[in-house]
Design a protein that fits this description.
36% helix; Rossmann fold; alpha/beta; three-stranded parallel β-sheet
C-alpha cells in the first residue's frame, strides 16, 4: 500500500511537495532552489494555523528530499517537533565516491561533474529536534552507508 495512503489511515495529515523541476513542477532543480523550496513550504505552513496544529509538525524527507529536509530543519530549528529522514546521503561528493569509485582518483573530473554539493553531513549538526534516520539495503540508488 502507498506510504501516504497508509499515513492518512493512521490519522496523519501530510503535505507533500514536488520540488522545482520534479514531477510536474516548473523550473529546474538546483541546490539553492531546492533549499528555498523547503523554507518557502514551511513559511506557507506557518500561515495555516487555522487548519494545522503548528505545535505538532514533523518533517519527513526521502532521498534528495532528505537533504532538503535536513537543510530546512537546520534553518528553522524551533519549528519541528521531530524528523524522519529516509535513505538520504551525507553529501553528493561522498555518494559519487560510493557509486563511481574511479572518480576518487580523478578529482578534477569529479569536481567538474558535480553541480551540487548538499553537505548534509555537516548541516545535520545544526538540527536540534529528535531525528530518526531510516535506511534499507534494497535501495537501488542511495547506498545504506550514506546515512551514517
Amino acid at each position: 500500500m502507498d506510504f501516504f495512503v497508509k499515513m492518512h489511515q493512521y490519522g496523519f495529515n501530510l503535505l507533500t511537495v514536488a520540488y522545482r523541476g520534479y514531477s510536474e513542477s516548473e523550473g529546474h532543480p538546483s541546490e539553492a532552489g531546492l533549499k528555498l523550496d523547503g523554507i518557502a513550504t514551511v513559511n506557507w505552513i506557518k500561515t495555516q494555523g487555522h487548519i494545522v496544529d503548528l505545535n505538532k509538525c514533523w518533517m519527513l524527507g526521502r532521498s534528495l528530499g532528505g537533504a532538503v529536509a535536513i537543510n530546512t530543519l537546520a534553518e528553522m530549528p524551533d519549528f519541528f517537533q521531530g524528523a524522519l529522514i529516509e535513505n538520504t546521503f551525507t553529501g553528493i561528493s561522498e555518494m559519487a565516491d560510493k557509486l563511481f569509485p574511479f572518480l576518487k582518483a580523478i578529482p578534477t573530473i569529479k569536481k567538474a561533474m558535480l553541480k551540487i554539493n548538499w553537505g548534509s553531513g555537516e548541516t545535520i549538526k545544526k538540527v536540534r529536534c529528535p531525528t530518526l534516520f531510516i535506511t534499507g539495503t534494497d535501495d537501488t540508488f542511495v547506498p545504506p552507508e550514506m546515512i551514517e
